[in-house]
Each structure stands twice: as C-alpha cells, then as structure tokens.
Write a structure and sequence with these properties.
The structure is a homodimer. Chain A has two domains: about 5-90, Winged helix-like DNA-binding domain superfamily/Winged helix DNA-binding domain (Arc Repressor Mutant, subunit A, Orthogonal Bundle), CATH 1.10.10.10; about 95-345, Rossmann fold, CATH 3.40.50.150. Chain A contains 15 helices and ten strands. Chain A has helices at about 5-15, 20-30, 35-40, 45-55, 55-70, 85-90, 95-105, 115-120, 135, 145-170, 185-195, 205-215, 255-270, 290-305, 315-325, and strands at about 45, 75, 80, 175-180, 200-205, 225-230, 240-250, 270-280, 330-335, 340-345. In chain A, strands 6-5-4-7-8-10-9 form a seven-stranded mixed β-sheet, with helices on both faces. The longest helix of chain A has 26 residues, at about 145-170. Chain A is elongated, with a radius of gyration of 23 Å. At the A-B interface, helix 1, helix 2, helix 5, helix 6 and helix 7 of A face helix 1, helix 2, helix 5, helix 6 and helix 7 of B.
C-alpha cells in the first residue's frame, strides 16, 4: 500500500492508534456471521442482515460502519458487500490462523511487550500462569490457546515438509535425530516417506507425550524413540550415530549465544558423513512483503511469550553461528513452502 | 492508501490479524524512546540506539524490525530513521491522545466488544468494575484511564468551542442551560466570553463536583449553578426559562429512542425565543477520511464502554429525531473545529 500524501500518513498513524479496535471489530464481524452473510448475499441492507442473523440493528450498524473504515466492507446506496480484502477473513486459511493465534495466544499478554523487552523475559506469558518459557507451558495452556498455537506453528511447517523430504532423503539416511520434534509431525512424515528409517525425537517431556500419542495413532511407534531434554536450560551433549540431525523451526526459539552453543553440541554428535539440516524462516529470504511482515510480527511473539530473547533472524546471523560453531553450510535452498530456507550443514573437520 | 493488487489485499488482512502486535510495538517504540532518538539522530545504527537508550541489542532489534514492517521506521544500510508516518507518534497531539485513549481506556475491555453487541450492554466496562455506564464510573476510574478519557473528549471539543461561541452568543443570551456539561469547560468559555451570562450545568453528580472545582479555580462560580441528573435513567422535565439550551458531544451518548425523548423534554423547556444548540460530530459531515475513520472507531467505544447502545450518528438520524420531537432546525453550521456540526433548533409551535 503506497503511502504518499499527508492525509495518508495521518490515517496510517490513526490505524495503529486504533489497531485494537480494528482487531476486535474484525473478530466480531467474523463471529456474528456478518462477513459470511454479506459474502453470500451481496449488497444486503442493514435490516436484512439484522433479521437473518438475529442481531440488533444497532449492533449491525456499528460493525458495518467500522468495517467500511477498515476496507473490509463495501457500501453502495445503504447496501453492503464483502470487499476483496474482507474475503481473506472468510476464506483464507492463513489469515484465519494468524488471527486466532493473535486472539487466543497473544491479545491479552501483548500488553506486557514493553516490559518483556526491558526485562528480557517473556512477561506476556504471565497471563496464563507462572512459567519461564512457553515451551514448558504448552501442555498446560487453555485448550483454545494450545490449539491456536499448534495450528499456527504447524500451518507453516506443513507447507514446507513435503518439499524438504526428498532433499533430506537423497542420502538415504538410516536414522534421523529430530531436535525440537514437537508433536511428531516431521517424524511421521519421515517414517511414512521411508519404510526403513528410524527417528529419535528430542524435545520437552510434555511435547514428547503428544508426539508418542500421535505416532501411536499412525501405527508408527516401532521405528521411533524419544529423547526428553530441555534445550533452553543448556545442553552439553546429544546422542551420536545419526546420519541426519534435523532442526525445523527450532533455532528461532533461542538467542544467538544459545544457538551457537546448540550448534557446537550438534557438531560433536555429527559423524563424518552425517548432515545437519536446518529448516527455518529468515527475514531476508522472503519472496513477498506479506511473508516478511508476518515474520517481523512473529518475532514480537518470541519476545513477549516464547522465551524473551529469540526471534526470526536474518539468514546471515544463523550462518555466522554455524561458522562460529565450526560447521560449514554445504547447500542453501530457499523458497520452500511459504518461505522456509533449508540449510544443509556438514562437519568439515 | 489505495489497495490494488492481491498482495496488497493479503497484507492489509494480515495487518488486521496482527493489529494488536502493531499497537503494542508502537507503544514500546514510543515508551523506550526509540522513536524520539532516531528522530533526533537520523540514520542511527542498532548499537548506537542500544547504548544511548540503555536497552539490549535484542530488544532494539525486534522493535526496529517491527517498526520497518509498520512503516514507522526507515532502513538504509543497517541504519534507521523515523518515517513521515512515524513522526505522528512523536509530534502529533491528536495521534498521541487517540493512542492513549485506546491504551488506557479500551485495550483490555475491547476483548468484550462481541459480547457488548450481543447483549446491548457495555461489557468492556467490567474490566474496571461493576457499572452500567461509563458516565457513572468516570469519577472512580483509575487515574490514567480517567485522564486519557477526558483528554480525548476535551481535545475535540476544545477545538470546536472557540468557533461555536460567537454563533451562540449572537442573540446575547442572559442564561444558558448546559446539558451534559461534564467538567465545565463550555461553561467556563461562556462565563469568560460574556460578563453577564449565567450558566446552569446539568450532569451526573460526579462530573458536577469536578465542574464546581474547575469553576472555583477560575473564580467563575458566582454566575454558575448546578443541576444534578442522570439522563440515562430517563428524564421527564428540565428547568425552564433559558435563552439557550446547549448540548455538546451529548446526544452521541444515547440511543435513537433516548435522543428523541431527551429532545422532546428539551422542547418542553424551550421558550418562544429560546434556542437549542446541538454541537456534535456526524459521520457524513467530515471533510477528510481521517476524521471519518476516527469517528467510526469511536462508535465502537460507545458500544463496548459507554452504554452499549450509542454511537457517532449520521446527521440525518439526529435531524429526524429533532423533527420527531417537534423541533425544527433553523441553521446548520459544518466544519467547526476538527469536524463538528452546530445545529441551531427552535420550537416552531
């Protein structure tokens, strides 16, 4: 959206000053069914909407009038239709998941963003309870918070995994160490992709329970095992003897110092012909401004909720960490899924 | 901001899905002093900002990177400056007051906007305590909430009063009934403008205490008196014998039905040569899209916090109420202050 005149600048500033109004108005327009209704019934009047959705004329009016200001709703002779932008709130999965993530995970706690930055701690997390990081808390978060967190997390990795699989399996690995394996989605993909590969998932005990249950449902437990650990408390070593060590959307959960340490430990566990694959999103490797925008906002989630010192990085930050840990990048593949980069690393020693 | 391509629509939708992130990031950029610093020190590096503001490099980085996505901050060779839009957060009084109003009065309670619409009650108000309307609550709200509410309210009326005074005083009124006189700002203007006029302020007891104290400070109590009442509970009559009845930013606090009743009662109190002056903002009488945007968002404040059934109206809604109450509009003056309209009404009987 090019901004050019003084009025545009003024309006853009007000749109930030009233941003929480926009968010909650959009939510109310979705939840009351107004957006779906005017999508199906183009150019409806206020009274038609009111009658069909069993709302008050007043309630429909204030939301419609706000929707016009937000470019979600179009107006013509006191009749209303969904705008092209409004379509995203009705039809687009990514917009829906981003919206729910902000709503269920972030809205309340974001009030503590400033404090989180001053303290270097994820102060927003306190709205859910007393935890040091969200990774400890995940298993115990309220149901809708937990669901929206995982849906957000999985949506982006789900698009990347199918493209990453053939690259990772080119070397026909016998076994994979899946570091930060979360609820087992990558492990399941691997165990399905190959009939022989074995996978060890390393993560928090809470996530491993979920992972185990998910693998059981898929009848894939036989070639899987679990390695409970807490990377945020600092790790000294990892099990050895894997053809591949895999880290997906994992390093973004740590500070630069921690990343260097993790990569150093990973190096110690890499054999001569082993590969370390890092799948992550980088600010500077995006094809379009939408992906970059989402990543820049997601960094603030890491500040306020995750652990207070992690973020979405520039690729050179991570590549520097890789080099400092004594590893070498053998290949970089960009534009995987919606905006992931796959770094294939080796131990050059 | 013209939106034209599919990418623009997608981005605009994400900006709503992440709107609370934008709001809290802007707040943190203001409160940490980052915006002021890069305004004074154009094209600073992250380390310069970090050192001078005693923040962590991490904290400055995530905010700067978010600020770029929000068009608040400009980037050139890893150095940063304030954008033209960012200037509004540092220099513009209106943006500052809108921002603080959203922050201190609305952020938390806006989560209850949907419920407020379903129930027809200002459910957002519950975050402050158990009240039916914000007008009962005003005297007891937390200090910064109260201050931000009055600053927001006064800012807009303060620009309008000087232009409205000569119009109202053209008929040399002996006495004015100031309905919904709030903390006495209009009364003070009138008592200063004329050495002889007397003013009666009608409002909630809480506000009248403030008004009395403010008039005392100005040494203007001699020609003022007070009429405690609660218009939201329905009024049957008003005192008579005034040359002018005045309602500033008052009718927007009521539903259409209540407005009609209030105007009907006001009619009963208007003498043959009396005038009723209504000063208010109307959605359809704005000169620019910024003013209209602010008013459309402000309607949602009335829904969620004020009383659950009032809003910023279209002028024809109020003019219809005036007619239905048996009054006639003698003159309409638009574009007063930042976007007020002054309606001069008479009793045609």
């Amino acid at each position: 959206m090019p901004i050019s005149t003084k009025l545009d600048y003024t309006l853009a500033a007000q749109k930030i000053a009233f941003a929480p109004f926009e968010f909650q108005a959009a939510k109310a327009m979705i939840e009351t069914g107004i957006l779906r209704y005017i999508r199906k019934n183009k150019w409806s009047s206020i009274s038609q909407i009111t009658e069909n959705l069993k709302l008050t004329e007043y309630g429909v009016t204030v939301l419609i009038e706000a929707g016009i200001a937000m470019n979600i709703i179009l107006e013509k002779d006191n009749r209303y239709a969904l705008s092209k932008m409004g379509m995203f709130f009705v039809c687009d999965k990514m917009t829906e998941l981003n919206f729910r993530f902000t709503d269920h995970v972030c809205y309340k706690g974001l009030e503590h963003l400033g404090e989180s930055i001053r303290k270097g701690k994820p102060d927003g997390l306190m709205v859910f309870g007393k935890w040091t990081t969200i990774y400890e808390a995940l298993a115990d978060l309220p149901d809708n918070t937990r669901r929206s967190w995982f849906n957000f997390d999985h949506f982006y990795s789900d698009q990347a995994f199918p493209e990453a699989l053939p690259i990772v399996f080119k070397c026909s690995p016998k076994n994979i160490l899946d570091i930060g394996g979360n609820t087992g989605r990558w492990a399941i993909e691997c165990l399905r992709y190959s009939d022989t590969v074995k996978v060890v998932i390393a993560d928090h005990e809470g996530q491993l329970k979920d992972a185990e249950s998910n693998l059981r449902k898929e009848n894939l437990l036989e070639r899987a095992s679990f390695y409970p650990t807490d990377f945020l408390k600092g790790i000294q070593k990892l099990p050895k003897g894997f053809d591949i060590i895999w880290m997906s959307q994992f390093l973004c959960c740590f500070s630069e110092e921690e990343i260097q340490n993790i990569l150093h430990v990973a190096k110690g566990s890499l054999g001569k012909n082993s590969r370390l694959f890092i799948l992550d999103t980088f600010l500077d490797k995006q094809k379009n401004p939408v992906a970059e925008y989402i990543l820049r906002m997601t960094s603030l989630y890491f500040t306020c909720f995750a652990n207070g010192n992690s973020k979405v990085y520039h690729s050179n930050t991570i590549i520097n960490c890789i080099k400092k840990a004594g590893l070498a990048v053998k290949k970089e593949t960009n534009h995987i899924g919606l905006g992931h980069t796959l770094l294939e690393c080796i131990n050059p020693d």
